[in-house]
Write a structure and sequence with these properties.
This protein is mostly helical. It is built from five helices and two strands. A hairpin with a 2-residue loop joins strand 1 and strand 2. The protein is rod-shaped.
Length: 112
């Protein structure tokens, strides 16, 4: 039966290595190679940050809304108020016309 502790260790180049072995391997790297690794980590970190920003839709919407000029907000509010007023006016007129409408009575014509 396999040792569960041993199975949890990371696999490097097809072999299992302990954290101490991985640290020792990093220590053996030359300064130039370490610099490459550090730059690669920074690039990956920046890429992950950009991806996280793209996936965060609520934050993107808020940022977009912050860039809308106040005059546009005022125009949109005015348009919304005008539409609301128009709807209220039309409903009130319809309700009034329904109350005033006389009921039609059918006349019975004499049978010929």
């Amino acid at each position: 039966m396999a040792d569960p502790q041993r199975d949890d260790r990371p696999v490097v180049d097809g072999t299992r290595a302990t954290p101490d072995e991985l640290r020792a391997e990093v220590e053996r790297l030359s300064d130039g190679r370490r610099q490459e690794v550090a730059e690669l980590r920074e690039d990956i970190g920046a890429t992950m940050h950009q991806l996280a920003e793209r996936v965060d839709v609520p934050a993107r919407v808020k940022a977009t809304l912050r860039t809308v000029p106040p005059t546009v907000w005022a125009g949109a509010a005015g348009a919304a108020a005008a539409v609301t007023g128009l709807i209220v006016l039309l409903k009130a007129r319809r309700a009034t016309s329904l109350r005033r409408r006389p009921t039609r009575r059918h006349r019975q014509t004499p049978a010929s």
